[in-house]
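We close this part of the discussion by returning to an individual protein. The encoding preserves chain order, so positions in sequence and tokens coincide. The sequence in question and its structure tokens are set out directly beneath this paragraph:

===
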Amino acid sequence: MLKLWKNCDLYVPAHLGKQDILVLGGQIWKIGSDLSAWEAIPEIEVLDLGGSIVCPGLIDLHVHVTGGGGEQGPASRTPEIQLSELTKNGVTTVLGLLGTDGISRSLENLLFKCCALEQYGLTAKMLTGNYRYPSPTLTGDVARDIALIDRIIGVKIAVSDHRSSNISGEELARLATEVRVSSMLAGKAGLVVMHMGGGEQRMAPLFWALEHSDVPPETFLPTHCCRSPQLISDAVRFNKMGGTIDFTADVAESEAGTAAAVYSALQQGADPSRITMSSDGCGSQPVFDAHGACTGLTYSTPATLLQELRRMVCLNGISFDTALRFFTENPARVMGLAGIKGTLHPGADADLLALDNGYAVTHLMARGKPFVSFGKAVCKGAFER
């Protein structure tokens, strides 16, 4: 089935201005300033965007698709994410992972949830492990999980957090080596995604691993880098070493605020091509007192992605195409999907997002399949109301 999106104000993420996009099956076939001649093809679906912004579908590198939380007991466990929670907020690709709770939450459930999202039409990869070290796995070994299970592209670990296993720099280097070798064998990105807590060591274990091993910086992806000005400074240092840093949208405990934290990193000389932003969707955002007791709990949602995009552009003066890369082109490279996801050109997946002037989602397709039309979800999960 041919689909034509016409009169798009196109960002690929670079701004191309008024363009039309022709989609065949699940891929972009043609992009041009005037493809109206194709409207004569019988049964072609035509959508006139009327000059609305059209960009790649968003890539969320940090989603607790099976739910998270639990820091205040069983009643504080957050629910699984619904399909429309992703699509109504412009997300077409997710990286699923576990968090604090690796007891009532399982990697088996995570794998099946990612498979379900793929069956609906999104793109979903996952990480093995959780906060603990040694990491829980599906096969009994991190390297085997990555090498043998197609959907797994790396491992999750917690660093400098009172809920972590207090992994040392030496242990982190050893884990990263396993990830790097297994991902090379499998032809994958190979990531060590590091939940960064608020501990005083901050990124000290990461810097030790880089200084005492030959593992390249791009193997690591520290996330929640906006917790404090000190952690932002560590993140900028790592970015300048060649690593990518991930900021969590709308983090309640951040002293600087997420959009302001990204602006601060850029002012300190961070390379914008190695910055990403994720939602921590369906994860809890607990508030701890000085003694480590959980005193409050909030709930993350992918809706924060476009909120932060708006804040970066409107409040911090970051250009739209630069900010857009944090949610599209940059995370696509991190996931090993450069040229397929996070960009719009012939041969790329047809993940198309249309936004109104307030950056709200009006239309969305993933791999050529419509998910949002005129602001309403037209494809929902099997048990969504």
